[in-house]
Design the sequence.
């Protein structure tokens, strides 16, 4: 029986996450969602990196999802 598998990669878009995505791409994974949890705990330049990485995800034929949150600082309170 051939099962249509669905993969989810949780990514911070740091270098280790990018490497994992590259390994998955080289392995030929299809039907992949890449999820980024926006903790609002990053440098001011990070959203630009996230958008560039999201574009790469889409170019690979995968789906990108940003998971919103109240932010790490608010969650700690």
Sequence:
């Amino acid at each position: 029986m051939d099962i249509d598998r669905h993969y989810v990669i949780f990514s911070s878009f740091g270098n280790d996450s990018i490497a994992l995505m590259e390994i998955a791409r080289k392995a030929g994974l299809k039907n992949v969602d890449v999820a980024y949890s926006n903790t609002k705990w990053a440098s001011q330049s990070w959203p630009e990196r996230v958008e560039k990485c999201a574009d790469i995800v889409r170019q690979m034929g995968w789906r990108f999802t940003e998971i919103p949150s109240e932010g790490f600082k608010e969650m700690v309170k």
